[in-house]
Structure formats: structure tokens, C-alpha cells
Amino acid sequence: MNAETQQRILDAVDAGFEAQLATTRDFVAIPSTRGAEGPCQDMIGDLLRERGYEVDDWHIDVEDLKDLRGFGPIEHDFSKARSVVGTYRPQTNAGKSLILQGHCDVVPAGPLELWDTPPFSPVVKDGKMFGRGACDMKSGTIGALYALDAIKAAGFKPTARIHFQSVIEEESTGVGALSTLQRGYRADACFIPEPTGGKMVRSQVGVIWFRLRVKGHPTHVAFAGSGANAIMAAYHLIQALQKLEIEWNERAKADQHFKTLDHPINFNPGIIKGGDWASSVPAWCDVDCRIAVLPGWSIADHQKEIMACVAAAARNHRFLANNPPEIEWSGFLSEGYELTNAAAPEAAFAKAFGKVYGGMPEDLVFTALTDTRFYGLNHGIPSLCFGASGGEMHGFNEFVELESLKKTTRAMALFIAEWCGVEKA
């Protein structure tokens, strides 16, 4: 791809950026929390059809996925779950095929009064767009779409098959991405524009979700000593799991990538529910937890370690020794992933990056996970993850930096053109 072609594509990205931001605002304005992603998928389907893509919009059947590698259990109403894929088929097959994927599900906003502006009324100020999902990762999804638009607006068309995929469940199980693979979508490479601060994800953790179900013995609080407080017993188990977290972080010091980080394994008791009356010793407590694992670590083996940790802690507790807690696997059962065997797509992206940013992309050792794992682990499809800068993901006042978003879109457009090839339209 010559310099003139590159410049025309970059100019087209710049010319379309205001329209890109308007579409991003509309996308962020949809409150697509778990189970409510349908309107976002409707919007993506419409955007793809308007552009002439071949659209596949289907209901996800858990029965089709439950035996696949990386599947995590679904506990909520999944009756409206859908994946949407728009396919571009070239007139000339000369380049290499590509999957472009984004997820439209977002985490809950939390107490609305703690946001400076409403989370689903996106606001642009000080060079940033604020709103739930603005950073993670709706701006990246729309950026990928407008990167494709820029190639067309510059007078070119790709010479390889492209699948533009909008998935759900990235924040809790990953079965949206898994469903596209079960459906048969494949390519020579995958690119996911998660917000990475302009760095390329080299290695990422996997995640295990589990629920502690703890029983107590209720009494009036006036006679608390004769009962057993399930909430306090749950804290006893949490403290034991914090020690397991320390052990796993010691083990992480042997990993070639994660040894550079002080604390890559994070354990989080994220939801706690228990009891039913302030003057009654609580009879039950449920704690939903998340803990990370590193690439190459067996999910099954680490599930056993969690169970052994909880069992040992229970044996050292007056009440739990005879009333052992239960463990339920409640979402992610996801392996870590290291980007390997990706020399060709990385070289293509390096050219794009150099044109936009200068130099070479830096590696990112990522203490969260992305959907890239399914492509690399399940099917050997090299999966690049690179995106814009922002902040407060999963927190209050989430934002994406607009100049970073423009650069990311420029780099994506050039990467698509380099990897897939282009010809005059």
C-alpha cells in the first residue's frame, strides 16, 4: 500500500470523525446491561444493512455451546440473547480475511447520584466522551465500523472477506464470541479494539467466577452467642481466599510476562447478600467472587484449589466445620491467553501503527481478560487487541479520550487495508 493510498484513508477517517462520534453517542445511550442488549444489536444490524453488509442475526442457544472449551455457566434470563455478524465479501480475493469484533454489553452503572452526568446520556467535554460503555467498549466497536467506512470513502474496497461481529456476554461469560465460532465464522486473524491505552495486549489473565453459599444458625441477636452468623462466617472464608490470592501471586513470579507486575492476580468478593433482619443472627450469606488465573494455568486445577481452600477454612470454623459451605460456578471459567504465532498480522499492524503514532506498538500485560482467547486457544486464529485510552471503566464517570479514539480508528483503517488488501472501488 503506497503513501498516497494511506493518506487518502487517513483523511477519510478525519472527515468522518464527527459522524463517528454522533453514532458512538447514540450507541452509548442504549443501556445494554446483561440481558438488555437487544436494542444495541438492533442498532448494529441496521448500521450494517445500511452499508450493504450481509447480516446474520441469530438467537444464541446455550445447548449449542455448553460443551465447548471456555464456556461459562449462564444463570440469568438468556431468552433474548443474540449475536450479530455483518459480512463483507470481496469481488477480488487477494488479501487475508479478518474478524473485527466488539461487545455491546456493559456493566451496571451503580448509584446514579454518584455520576457527574447520567451514565446513559453521553456527554462530550474536555476532549472526552463520558458514559457507561463509552470506553469499554462501544467507542471501539463504532470505531471499527467507521474505519471500514473510511476505506470506502477514500475510493477503495477491501480484497478479502471481513466479518464485523457484535457480541454480548463479554463481561460475564464470553459466550457471545463463543457463539460466533460455533456458528462457523473464521478468518486469518481477529482484531478486537478494546481500550488498551494504545498498547497491544501481549498476555492476559483468565478469570474464574464462583459463589460461596454459607449457612448460619438464626437466633435473636440478644442471644447471638447461641447462634451462628452466616455473614461473619463468609468473611472467614474471604480471608482464607485472600491468602490463596497471595499464593497465586507468588506463583505468577515465574511467568515470563506477568513477573513484571507486582500483583497480577486479583481476588474480588464483588457481591454479598445475606440475612433478612437486623436483629436476627443471619441464617444465610451468598458471596459472588472473581479471581484471575494466568495463561497456561488449568481452570479445573485451580477450581480444585479454590474448593480445597474453602474446605480447609471451614474445618477451622466452629459452625462451618459441621455445616460446610457450598461453591457454585457462576460465570467466567476462562483461560488466560498469550498472543503467539501472530507475526504476520502484527507486522501488518506495525506498519499502520508507525504511520499514525510513529515507532512500534508497546506490549501490554493485561490483568483483565478479552474475547481474544476464544480465537487463539480454540482455533489458532491470531487475535490482536488494541484500542483507545480512557478511564473509570466499571466505575463512575467512565470516559474515552477522543483524540486517542481518532488515532485508534486511523490505525485500524490502515491495518484493515494492509492486511486485507485494497483495490480501487
Automatic annotation (TrEMBL):
A Pfam family: M20_dimer
InterPro entries assigned to the protein according to its UniProt record, in alphabetical order: ArgE/DapE, Bact_exopeptidase_dim_dom, Peptidase_M20, Peptidase_M20_dimer, Peptidase_M20A, YodQ-like
Cofactor: Co(2+); Zn(2+)
Signal peptide: none
Sequence ranges assigned to domain Peptidase M20 dimerisation in this UniProt record: 204-316
Domain of life, source organism: Bacteria
Keywords assigned by UniProt, alphabetized: Cobalt, Hydrolase, Metal-binding, Zinc
Family classification: Belongs to the peptidase M20A family.
This protein's name: ArgE/DapE family deacylase
Organism: Bradyrhizobium symbiodeficiens
